[in-house]
């Protein structure tokens, strides 16, 4: 018997994009997700049993071979994303909604498709993906008061924080688990009110890990760019991406790179372009093995130790103060 698959990034954007879709169109599906940086997910779908596949917030370029295989075997694929897709195949069984603009994300793409039907979940995803200005504008248009807007921003930040780690064991909640916990709620406010235990776990973890990160001094600093080095510990892996966003939001003219040591001797890298010049992060990351991402925010999953100094030099050169 054929079945449906939902393949989604384990961060706030991927989870909230799927929440909106399944609230609008319920479907009994197999969930495939993982930690935020685990994006080669489509290969986990078995074309022999797949009837249709929904893919959200997962870069097509990194999954092209698996996508081609599914399409060649008659599987229908719906693909919504905001990462650089590479060459998009022209196939009758493929429906795409891809927008790589620096001020959008997959949750906002889905929000537009659904005419804002589950706008509050879209805002959680957008805030979590650090689309602060865009989300604020949309929240104001939706008539949300400042208190509610801030609550959605906090929830998005906590949810995004939960997605970072080298493995599921680093996370407070597995992405599939927290998606299932939230799936029955048409609004994040309903979820926060009825599951304060889950919300408190996310909030307490975020606050504790943030306090540890705040004590870290820059590892390398030049006019226009800063590099921070975090230790090989679970709290550091969890906070790395959200910490990168926070650094960027605090000083919109400065680029930031947060480098986290890994047990195998390699490094995990989060790159954030300045808010006032949200370009170049994807190209910089792609110049190194296992690198990729978006124009404003990108990363390297396993930077070899021998390339650490090369990356730091390239990062500083890419983001001088006058960019």
From TrEMBL:
It comes from Grimontia sedimenti. This is DHH family phosphoesterase. Residues 9-118 form the DDH domain. It holds the Pfam family DHH.
């Amino acid at each position: 018997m054929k079945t449906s698959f939902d393949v989604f990034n384990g961060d706030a954007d991927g989870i909230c994009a799927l929440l909106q879709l399944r609230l609008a169109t319920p479907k009994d599906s197999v969930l495939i997700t993982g930690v935020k940086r685990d994006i080669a997910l489509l290969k986990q779908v078995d074309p022999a049993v797949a009837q249709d596949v929904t893919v959200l917030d997962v870069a097509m370029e990194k999954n092209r071979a698996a996508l081609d295989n599914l399409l060649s075997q008659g599987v229908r694929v719906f693909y919504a994303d905001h990462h650089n897709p590479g060459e998009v195949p022209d196939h009758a069984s493929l429906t795409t909604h891809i927008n790589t603009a620096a001020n959008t994300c997959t949750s906002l793409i889905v929000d537009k498709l659904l005419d804002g039907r589950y706008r509050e979940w879209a805002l959680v995803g957008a805030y979590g993906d650090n689309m602060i200005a865009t989300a604020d504008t949309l929240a104001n248009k939706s008539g949300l008061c400042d208190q509610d807007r801030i609550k959605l921003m906090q929830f998005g930040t906590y949810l995004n924080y939960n997605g970072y780690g080298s493995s599921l064991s680093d996370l407070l909640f597995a992405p599939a688990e927290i998606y299932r916990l939230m799936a029955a709620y048409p609004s994040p406010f309903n979820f926060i009110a009825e599951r304060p235990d889950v919300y408190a776990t996310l909030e307490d973890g975020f606050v504790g890990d943030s306090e540890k990160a705040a004590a870290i001094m820059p590892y390398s600093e030049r006019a226009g760019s800063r590099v921070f080095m975090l230790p090989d510990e679970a709290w550091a892996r969890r906070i790395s991406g959200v910490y990168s966003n926070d650094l960027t939001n605090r000083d919109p003219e400065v680029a930031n790179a947060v480098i986290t040591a890994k047990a195998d001797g390699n490094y995990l890298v989060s790159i954030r372009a300045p808010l006032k010049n949200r370009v170049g992060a994807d190209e910089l990351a792609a110049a190194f093995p296992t690198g990729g991402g978006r124009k404003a925010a990108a990363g390297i999953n396993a930077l070899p130790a021998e390339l650490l100094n090369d990356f730091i030099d390239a990062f500083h050169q890419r983001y001088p103060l006058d960019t």
